Amino acid sequence: MRNRNGALWLAVLAILAERVSAEGFVPPTGAGYVNVKTNGGAKGDGVSDDTAALKAIIEAGKSAPHPKFGAAREIYLPDGIYLVTEPIRIGDKKKSLIGQSRNGTVIRLNDNSPTFQDPKRPTPVLSFAKSYKGWHFAQNFFQRVHDLTIDVGSGNPGAVGLEYHTNNGGDAFNLLIKSSDPQKRGAVGLSQTAGSGPGLIHHVTVDGFEVGSLITGSLHSMAFSQIALTNQRVVGFENRGNTVSIEGLVSRNRVPALKTSGGHLALANAEMTGGAPDQSAIVHDKTAIFLRHVKTQGYGTAIAGEGQKVAGPDVDQLVWPKVWSLFPGPGKSLDLPIERPPFDKLGEPKGWFVVAADASGDLTAPLQQAIDAGREHIFVSAAKFGAIRDTIHVRNKVRIIRGAATYYHSKSFNDQDKLISYQPLKIEKAAKKKPVWRIEDGEGEAVMLQLLADSYGDAGWGVEHATRRTLILWAAGGSYRNTVTGGKVFFVDAGPFPGSEIVGPQQAWAWHANTESYVDDPHILNNGATLWILGLKTEKDRTIIKTTRGGRTELIGGLLYKNRERIGPAPAFISEDSSVSLSYAVTGLPYQVQVRETRDGRTRELPQSEVGRTMPLYVGLEAATPK
Q1: All residues at 6 or more sequence positions from 349 whose CB lies less than 8 Å from its CB, including other chains
Q2: Domain residue ranges of the chain, discontinuous segments joined by +
Q3: For residues 525 and 497, is the Cβ–Cβ distance under 8 A?
Q4: Which residues of 156-191 are buried (b: 16+ CB within 10 A; e: fewer)?
Q5: CA-atom Rg of the chain in angstroms
Q6: Which tens digit of pLDDT belongs to each residue from 293-333?
């Protein structure tokens, strides 16, 4: 099946191939990672039991610190096979577990391990859900696991590959989770049953297991991008009551590719092949659903649930229970083209230049000096990070500025114009503030800020995009505005992301965005641009997205968690002579007005009392919207 942009949805596992060179990611000296081999004594030879060595480093946290490395928040696993016999549990929040390469770095459970024998009490090989302090629930912030394989071995029917739990951001990226036993496959490949979200799961393959991916609960929503599920025995992907956003799901299974009960599901671009004729590819029950561009093969029906069956094999769009609109229109989503971040334009790092704070704890001068000296790939040390006290001008030859989930501080950035706590800050006022990062003209076609987050600073803007060069913000930068139009920006795990203004004809894509704010109203202003978002979560009570001047906004799944009421009944979404398609769920205090739309001088409102808690799809399209 092709979408209207000619993309062929036949790439099953190829879409999840290694994105890095054969060497993979090797952090430079001084980057601040704790190396499980050189620092932790792990062997990684596939023969030695590395359980104790990994637990000593990975399970370290505030309540049980490592004697030398403390909480060990940035952990690096060089290529090797790390044999384990017990669960490895992440010891604290705000931790990163980074492998050298997906296929080369393997955490493997020993065959027939006693702890992993009971399928009724599944046990994870690697868990982010619990630590010495117990269950984190909604406070397990910014957990990351990248570039490795988890293999549950053979003879471990009660094994869970990865139990992932993150809140307010964080991502699981470029992972292979597999079972080496075709009979005792393991219970679950990827499990999220401890209150995970919001966060992003992307470029992940799960091979084997009874259930490939399982998510439960009603909070806090998760986004999934480019997920491959193969050889499951019960179901590929199961959602029990959560708010789930998926883009690029590929399944090769005889059993149903996806089951969902309760909650909210938004799914775009799926390919489900190999199905049995007595099965349905998608099974839903009491779930608000929005499906777009779903291709099936082999199944008796494409979709079954709520007393209906859709024969398929292909489904262009399906919405349950209904499409909402305030003005006449086609009832179809915007179906904006999805463009991937152009990582190939960044150049392969052949040598990172490490920047650390100076003796006064200032990062500003060292960073700017490295950029102006012509460095292409700059690494901000996690071992010695500090404050940014003036705008960093990203220019010259720089392609990537990366941290190790590094937190810089901008608390002294705008002393003369500090925010007043909990007072609405309009976009116009915020525009007077200086940005932390200013992206300017330079030699490369694209530039990326990666794993660099402001630690609750008071800067008015995180990033000012002052060039047509393509910009990738991967868990970096915070709020965004562009002062030059006609370019492209890609947000990957964008949180926090409030107070952003995108001015058209700019194009923007976001894979997971967390916009919670008491200050910014609206959280995001689409001022004549094209904005596509997969998975959004927010808190507080401001308008989430305002679209004006003929802008186009498409939201594929999200959770509006209005847990405060400070300024009254602000509409959740505003559209003024523009085009929007919105799919989301609501929890906490309701937005009294879900959508306020103005068209040709007429304004209409959609009250929450009509909609309820789930919006499978709202469509408001201007007649001139390009198809």
Answers
A1: 376, 377, 400
A2: 75-320, 343-351+380-620
A3: no
A4: bbbbbbbbbbbbbbbbbbbbbbbbbbeebbbbbbbb
A5: 24
A6: 999 999 999 999 988 899 999 999 999 999 999 999 989 99
Backbone angles phi, psi at 293, to 5 degrees: 55, 70
| SS3 state of residue 179 | coil
pLDDT of residue 4: 37
% of the chain surpassing 70 pLDDT: 88
Sequence-distant (≥ 6) Cβ neighbours of residue 429 within 8 angstroms? none
Average pLDDT, the chain: 88
CATH topology match: 75-320 vs 343-351+380-620: yes
Q: How far is Cα 354 from Cα 448, in angstroms, rounded to an integer?
A: 16
> Average pLDDT of 92-100?
93
Indicate if the pLDDT at residue 74 is higher than 80: yes
Measured between alpha carbons, how far is 153 from 123 in angstroms, rounded to an integer?
14
Q: Tell me the residue type at 591.
A: Y
Q: Model confidence at 223, in pLDDT bands (50, 70, 90)? A: very high
Per residue in 124-153, is it b (16+ CB within 10 Å) or e — as a string? Answer: bbbbbbbbeeeebeeebbbbbbbbbbbbbb
Q: Which fold has domain 75-320?
A: Pectate Lyase C-like (2.160.20)
Nearest to 499 by CA among 476, 475, 515: 515
Q: How many of the other CB atoms lie within 10 Å of CB of 362?
A: 16
What tokens does 520 get? 């910014």
- Specify the residue for token string 């094999």: 313
Confidence of residue 454 (pLDDT cuts 50, 70, 90): low
Q: CB within 8 A of 307, min separation 6: which ones?
A: none
Residues 6+ apart with CB under 8 A from 134: none
**What one-letter code names the amino acid at 298?**
G
CA-CA distance, 18 to 15, in Å (whole number)?
Answer: 9
Q: Are 166 and 140 in contact (CB under 8 A)?
A: yes
The CATH topology of domain 343-351+380-620 is Pectate Lyase C-like (2.160.20)
Task: Name the nearest CA neighbour of 174 among 277, 267, 273, 103.
Answer: 103
Among 187, 107, 186, 185, CA closest to 147: 107
On whether the CB atoms of residues 345 and 444 are closer than 8 A, the answer is yes
Q: How far apart are CA 292 and CA 305, in angstroms?
A: 17
The helix/strand/coil state of 157 is: coil
Alpha helix ranges (H) inside 15-109? 51-58
Q: What is the pLDDT of residue 13?
A: 41
Residue 551 CB neighbour total at 10 angstroms = 27
Cα–Cα distance measured from residue 610 to residue 312, given in angstroms and rounded to the nearest whole number: 31
Q: How many residues does the chain have?
A: 627
Q: Measure the CA–CA gap between 109 and 161, rounded to whole angstroms.
A: 9
CB 100 within 8 A of CB 79: yes
Q: Sorting pLDDT into bands at 50, 70 and 90, what band is 410?
A: low
Tokens of 75: 């952990």
Beta-carbon-side half-sphere exposure of residue 383 (alpha carbons within 13 Å): 14
Instruction: Please give the sequence-ordered ranges of beta strands (E in DSSP) within 19-92, or none if there are none.
Output: 34-35, 45-49, 74-77, 80-84, 88-89
Q: Give the phi and the psi of residue 303 in degrees, each rounded to 5.
A: -140, 140
Residue 337 binned pLDDT confidence (cut-offs 50, 70, 90)? very high
pLDDT of residue 627: 39
**Structure tokens of 85?**
């016999």
HEC secondary structure over 463-516 = EEECCCCEEEEEEECCCEEECCCCCEEEEEEECCCCCEEEECCCEEEEEEEECC
